[in-house]
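Lab notebook: predicted structure, single chain.

Context: the supervisor wants predicted structures on file for every construct in the current expression panel, including those that have not yet been purified. This is the next one on the list. No modifications to the sequence; it matches the entry in the shared construct table.
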Amino acid sequence: MRKHTLQICIFLCALFLTGCSSDEVIDAEMLLSMQKENESLIQEKKELENQLKELSNSYTEIKLANERFVEEIEKLEVKIDEENNIILEIRNENFIMQEQLAAKNLVDNYDSADNTENEDKLVNEKWEAVTNERVKLRLEPTQEAVTIDVNYLNLHFSSFLKGTKLMVLGRSPQKDKFNNIENYWYYVQYSNGIVTQYGWVYGEFIQELNIESNYVSDFKEEINWLITIGELNDVSSSENLADLEEEVNKLIKRNAEAIDIFKTSTLIFDPELPDSDGVKLTGPEYPVISNRFKSFEDLETFLYSTYVKEYADHMLYTWEQGNEPLYLNVDGQLYIDSTYAGARGYYVDWNNYTIEISNISENQVDVKIFLVNYDPGSYDYLTIEVKLIKQSGEWLLEEMVW
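Prediction complete. Output recorded below exactly as produced.
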């Protein structure tokens, strides 16, 4: 570009010195062509600069992704227990995922292009299924194969219950005859949110999952029947596992709301708002502005329906340093002590979590909550443990967890 500009300047200077007329020397078409070429070079330069910028951004993203991947891999510790289960354990955490080692190796071997001896053992398929009867999960596609216990909410069963959702990954190439019935064996994956299991089930006892499947009601009927006959000895006769899981999730969501108004922030208040008599307040106690909690009684009801009475009392009356309450009852109106008001950074994602329920008894349940902390300085997995206590027939959290 600079070369062409210099040529034009030299040419015009020579023209001026010699006194030649422009129509005698200057070729207008040539100048126009040079101008267009100049513009084209400028455009090419911009495009190259943009491409270079995109490449630089892509390289940075790949580098950061690779660093995060290495960090996560370094956290994992692989163990194998006495039953040949793979245990992937995140260091310094209790978050554990288990898979049957032998069963998992089956699908890996069948999918291997180099493993020709297994090419005739699995026909690849993938579809969602649901059990229409109880059916055992087996290590191999035969009636004589070893069975695998199925994990429901950390309770172990000898077979899948009716109404259990499965993912079919493949089937046997030939049908197998059993009690005058011929059907395929299907290689399936089952997950309860914490544990993932693999194995074979006989095709007569599963069907394709569709909108007409009543698997939810079927599953609840199975659980209730097992409780009735006493097969679930550690579950109260009035307790339904599906209902218990729903209750746990409800309490976790209420706990997250309590974190927001007691730990990481507080309810909103206006220092300029006068009291009920129109008198301007001087603090540090001010009325709360909230559609959710319009009175002190609203806050009481929320806390006593979320936590056991002893802990709810603590939150209401001795929460802050010096055993001072954060929220006050002023003639039934909800006030806040602004001395303790404020906010802090908190990055735990309570909208996405999984749970593990165990040690179920009549009046107590152990719960593990698996979450992710998105703190910019320490992205990490969290495992939080809490107990549910039954008081006056109602399940409640033993304490706030956060």
